[in-house]
Amino acid sequence: MIRKNTISLLAMSAVSALALGATAAAPSSALPAVAAQSCPAVGSSSSGADHISVTFHNQSVTVTARVNDSGPGATALYVTTFAGTRDLAVASSSPVDQRSRTVSFTVPANVHGGADSVGYLVRTTMGATSETAYCYR
Q1: pLDDT of residue 35
Q2: What does the alpha-carbon distance between residue 15 and residue 106 come to, in Å, rounded to a whole number?
């Protein structure tokens, strides 16, 4: 009887080891990029950003937007990456002055799996700041 249970336990252990080995090899360490997300505009027509597109990658986020400025000072788009409620990094576009220009830049998200959301706003060199908008993976 002891011998039968021992063989049965060894067989179950071998099957479990094979199953665990197969499971451990399946996941990939890098998540694929998510198709560009279309995100809401921020600011106003004289100082704002629209046509905002965000692509989430494994360790970064690419942002493309049209930044508009026709008021006093110049306008820049600021983006913060988040993993849950933890902020990861902040980056901004170069300032746009008295015109509209498409900007594109990358914001780091150096955690496994990358960012799951971004918060963004526009700020002028005169100190005016828009409401913050969010875009999700």
Answers
A1: 80
A2: 46
